[in-house]
UniProtKB/TrEMBL annotation:
Post-translational modification: Phosphorylated by CheA. Phosphorylation of the N-terminal regulatory domain activates the methylesterase activity.
Lineage: Bacteria, Pseudomonadati, Pseudomonadota, Alphaproteobacteria, Rhodobacterales
UniProt-recorded name of the protein: Protein-glutamate methylesterase/protein-glutamine glutaminase
Residue span(s) of domain CheB-type methylesterase: 144-338
Organism whose genome encodes this protein: Celeribacter neptunius
InterPro entries assigned: CheB-like (IPR008248), CheB_C (IPR035909), CheY-like_superfamily (IPR011006), Sig_transdc_resp-reg_Me-estase (IPR000673), Sig_transdc_resp-reg_receiver (IPR001789)
Domain annotation Response regulatory: ranges: 5-122
One MF term in the entry's GO annotations: protein-glutamate methylesterase activity
General function of this protein: Involved in chemotaxis. Part of a chemotaxis signal transduction system that modulates chemotaxis in response to various stimuli. Catalyzes the demethylation of specific methylglutamate residues introduced into the chemoreceptors (methyl-accepting chemotaxis proteins or MCP) by CheR. Also mediates the irreversible deamidation of specific glutamine residues to glutamic acid.
GO biological process, one term: chemotaxis
Length: 344
């Protein structure tokens, strides 16, 4: 197999050498060019056609985030942000992933050597295989209130690439959207920044889930991660249960854990599985569908990584498919009140 072609973009020559030395220890990767500014990076992309790019945030004349935004609109490609500003939980990291970056890696601080970069080569290799779609079409912002009647709660699970996907799904949710729970594979500090960012961008109220919280229309709750899974509790008055437990399907928070907790009330559930690596959520989505839930998978063509939806379909858990730009509206449709059904 041909090695993955990598472009390193950083204004520090010392950091470029460090990144190159680490990447070149992996025979699957080949550094084809380096750039110290956004202009040089643009020229290198056009000349060398790299498969993946590492990109710093702080650069002269044009920041890495501004360049990333332009890159994703004109020449979409896999990008791994490498910066002191992309530490776990930073708003910059979440914004970068919402713009289309596949992953973020924090630069080593003074005295740390290359310890923070221990998984950099593997991260770049995995990112290079992500499917990066064309420029995102603009979405119309949802109406403040739709007065649509919903009789199902909405459960969403995602991983790699789903920061942007969840943002786009929620952008079409009205202020009176169905009660929504989201499990996204991210470290706990990232999830806090993610919830805060979403709450400012979309009409529903977005928070980290709290143990014992009741499910309400217009409320979106995101798994806080850390030691906890986000589960459902109850059969009539549904509540949030933050379950402290081991990894499930290799993750905490786990989509399988959230979906499994809803099987008992499956007819009141619409579950969606978004872009992500692996199989978390697949087995429990099959259980949900068999018990009467409506289920939706993100289409292969619009997934950054067609892993979780693919396995869910192979197991029989996906009832319908939707491209990302229609996913939010399709979830609302599955949650709507059909004739002669009482709303939540």
């Amino acid at each position: 197999m041909k090695p993955i072609r990598v472009l390193i973009v950083d204004d520090s020559a010392t950091m470029r050498r460090l990144i190159r030395s680490i990447l070149e220890t992996d025979t699957r990767l080949k550094v084809v060019a380096e750039a110290g500014t956004a202009r040089e990076a643009r020229d290198a992309v056009n000349e060398h056609r790299p498969d993946v790019m590492t990109l710093d945030v702080e650069m002269p004349n044009m920041s890495g985030l501004e360049f990333l935004d332009r890159l994703m609109r004109h020449r979409p490609m896999p990008v791994v942000m490498v910066s002191t500003l992309t530490r776990k939980g930073s708003d910059v990291a979440v914004e970068a992933m919402s713009l289309g970056a596949v992953d973020c890696v924090e630069k080593p601080t003074r005295g740390d050597g290359a310890d923070n970069f221990s998984k950099l080569a593997e991260t770049v290799y995995v990112a290079a295989h992500a499917r990066i779609n064309g420029p995102r079409p603009k979405l119309k912002r949802a109406a403040p209130v739709t007065n649509r009647r919903f009789h199902r709660i909405c459960l969403l699970g995602g991983s790699t690439g789903a920061v942007d996907a969840i943002e786009r799904v929620l952008q079409v949710f009205p202020a009176d959207c169905p009660p929504t729970l989201i499990t996204q594979h991210m470290p706990a500090p990232f999830l806090m920044s993610f919830a805060s960012r979403l709450d400012q961008l979309v009409r529903p109220h977005v928070t980290l889930a709290r143990d014992g919280a009741t499910l309400k229309a217009g409320q979106v709750m995101i798994a806080p991660g850390g030691d906890y899974h986000l589960n459902l509790e109850g059969t009539i008055d549904l509540r949030v249960k933050l379950h402290k437990g081991p990894l499930v399907s290799g993750h905490r928070p786990s989509v399988d854990s959230m979906f499994s907790s809803a099987v008992e009330v499956a007819p009141r559930v619409a579950a969606g599985i978004l872009t992500g690596m692996g199989r978390d959520g697949a087995a429990a989505m099959r259980e949900l569908r068999a018990a009467g839930a409506r289920t939706l998978g993100q289409s292969k063509e619009t997934c950054v990584v067609f892993g979780m939806p693919r396995v869910a379909a192979e197991l029989g858990g996906v009832e319908e498919w939707a491209d990302l730009d229609q996913f939010g509206e399709e979830m609302l449709r599955l949650c709507e009140v059909p004739a002669k059904v009482r709303a939540l």
